Amino acid sequence: MNNFVRLFGGGLGALIAVALAGGSGIPPLDLSTAGGVVLLLAWISAWTVIGYSILPYVTLQPARAAIRRVLDLSTSEFVSAVAGLLVGLLIGVLLGLPLSNLADPYGSLLPIGTVIVTGLGMMGLTVAKRHDLIDGLRSAGFLRAPSDDAPAANEGPVNYVDSSALIDGRITDVVASGFLWGTLIVPRFVIAELQHIADQRDQSRRARGRRGLEVLAILQKDPRVGVELNDEDISGVQEVDAKLIQLCRRRGAGILTNDYNLNRVAQLNEVRVLNLNQLANALKPAFLPGDGLRVKVIQQGKEPGQGLAYLDDGTMIVVEGGGSMIESEVDVTVVRVLQTVAGRMVFAQPRP
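-> structure tokens emitted (352 positions)
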């Protein structure tokens, strides 16, 4: 296709050169002499090279870029863009009719300019405000809400997803359990961040990035939750965390993350936070002083004489005086419980 366009451009350039040379006398050539013929051939050759070189860049490549852009649009973005364009063109025609009565060139140029400006302006406006427009049409009765018999996946709360939650991977289990539903929004700059991590030379970071992309693919196939990939962005802001917080505030949505710093900043900005680590800690069994446990001491603790054991959910049990009981199962009594940022630590003593 590219070669055909180049050949067509070369032929078009040659035709333009002949038309210019024959119709307007540019350049003024005397074809009765050998020099004039050589200049004419050079003139045609130059225009042929120009057409051959330039035409793909002004036709084929812009068309391919436009097609890629359309394919990246979500269904809601495409429908709202078409509707906005039609409404804008109609408004432009109505506004341009009185302007056509003006004297030329204003009577010819102003209506066309009005149609272009209103069409493109309304298209951009409807795409940017499509969610508010859909909610308004639904409230006015023009759109029917989804039936209760077949609830849509995108009903319910709207939450933006950070890359840390996707890399963690437990989000799929939470969705499968039914505790997380509604719409999960993953902006494309978050996907770009995952792709950047997946392209790192360090093997561990590369594996983390790939896992995040795989988890996103699993979520897209899960009918219990709606996943929306969009091109929302905040101009002038480079940090991914800052972009997510501003998007959440703009839309009144929550943010799903495992990042401690993002969690704190979001809370300061009054953004609802769903933290998988906090959820996991909340679901761990509660221990009170005096409760009995049977654990297996597997290693030495930090302090002399201490032994460490772990429950199935990862809770650390610090056994006082258990340093000599490595690889042994012992009955212990809970003495105190310490909640830290990393999780819950239980201090216990062996039963007599």
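The first strand starts at residue 158 and ends at 161.
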